[in-house]
């Protein structure tokens, strides 16, 4: 249902690869709520993903950008302002990738060059994005910037591997840069810590489907879906959450505050 919560707002959405991507659901909901958006993803995703189909459906443009390249980010943000007709009101960072996870390296056998790449793609890109947008003076007053995180930033989830440290870094960038963005233009910066969700990135984690079921039983409301995450994200992009900043916000059906759930012990 549309409440026109984002009417007249301009946004950039990173990370829509296919229909399962959390970012795809966010893009759909942002459009439903009246926003004008630009989709972006790594150049390689243009070939493997279904981003063009999504863009046609949502009648929006796609601008390729490697999130680790400041040059690509400058081009993306400048072109987005041209296409959308003004400064940006919201940005979604839904970018993550680990070569160590992909190559099934265990946490005690990590390749450090790949680890650096993981941190660059999954966390430092968030800083690069915010710094580039600040240098280009690209955000409107009271704008909103959100990145997607996971509770492995705070607790130990052995199979989440080096992505745990990536998320810890990502959340820290939200807190630290949140100060500077608030002072510059009252822009807020938050991370959403989302339930396990069946997507390309999620399914790459070892034992993901068993873990997905465990988290579902451990959460009194069950796992939060990508669609529900998109609804939450819309509220954070809207004018109804203007004083929320520098937070890591759990969107996980209650998982993060559970100790023991009897449902986990049931056969
Ligand atoms: N799926 C889950 O269980 C889950 C849970 C919590 C948080 N998250 C986070 O949500 C975000 C979105 O992931 P998803 O689960 O929707 O999976 P996804 O695989 O659909 O999305 C990951 C995206 O990152 C993009 N990407 C990778 N390298 C890039 C680069 N160099 N430049 C630009 N884009 C690049 C991919 O093309 C893809 O679109 C990620 O940050 C992920 O860690 C996912």
Q: Can you put this structure into words, describing what you see?
A:
The N and C termini lie far apart (38 Å). This protein has 267 residues and is α/β, with parallel strands linked by helices. The chain is 46% helix and 16% strand. The mean pLDDT is 96. Helix 6 runs parallel beside helix 7. It is globular, with a radius of gyration of 18 Å. The longest helix has 24 residues. It has a 7-stranded parallel β-sheet with strand order 3-2-1-4-5-6-7, sandwiched between helices. It has a single domain, classed as NAD(P)-binding Rossmann-like Domain (Rossmann fold, 3-Layer(aba) Sandwich). The protein binds nicotinamide-adenine-dinucleotide.
How would the blueprint of this fold be written?
Blueprint: E1 10-14, H1 22-32, E2 36-41, H2 43-48, H3 51-58, E3 61-64, H4 70-84, E4 88-93, H5 99-102, H6 112-135, E5 139-149, H7 163-185, E6 188-194, H8 200-203, H9 208-218, H10 226-237, E7 248-251, H11 262-265
Helix pairs in contact: 1-10, 4-6, 6-7
The structure holds nicotinamide-adenine-dinucleotide.
Nicotinamide-adenine-dinucleotide binds next to helix 1, strand 5 and helix 8.
Question: Which labels suit this protein?
Answer:
267 residues, seven-stranded parallel beta sheet, 11 helices, 7 strands, globular, binds nicotinamide-adenine-dinucleotide
């Amino acid at each position: 249902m549309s409440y026109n919560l984002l009417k007249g707002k301009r946004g950039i959405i990173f990370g829509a690869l296919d229909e399962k991507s959390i970012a795809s659901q966010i893009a759909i909901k942002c459009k439903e709520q009246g926003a004008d958006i630009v989709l972006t993803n790594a150049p390689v995703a243009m070939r493997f993903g279904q981003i063009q189909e999504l863009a046609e459906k949502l009648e929006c443009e796609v601008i390729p950008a490697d999130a680790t390249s400041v040059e690509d980010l400058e081009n993306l943000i400048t072109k987005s302002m041209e296409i959308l007709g003004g400064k940006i009101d919201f940005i979604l960072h839904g970018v993550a990738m680990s070569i160590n996870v992909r190559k099934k390296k265990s946490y005690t056998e990590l390749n450090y060059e790949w680890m650096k790449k993981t941190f660059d793609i999954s966390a430092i890109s968030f800083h690069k994005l915010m710094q580039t947008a600040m240098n280009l003076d690209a955000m409107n007053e009271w704008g909103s910037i959100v990145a997607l995180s996971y509770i492995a930033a705070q607790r130990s989830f052995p199979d989440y591997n080096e992505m745990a440290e990536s998320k810890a870094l990502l959340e820290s960038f939200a807190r630290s840069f949140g100060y500077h963005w608030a002072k510059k233009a009252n822009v807020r910066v938050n991370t959403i810590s989302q339930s396990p969700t069946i997507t390309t990135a999620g399914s790459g984690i070892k034992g993901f489907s068993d873990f997905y079921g465990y988290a579902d039983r451990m959460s009194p409301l069950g796992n939060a879906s990508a669609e529900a995450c998109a609804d939450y994200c819309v509220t954070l992009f809207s004018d109804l959450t203007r004083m929320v900043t520098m937070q890591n916000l759990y969107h996980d059906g209650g998982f993060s505050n559970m100790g023991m759930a009897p449902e986990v012990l049931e056969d």
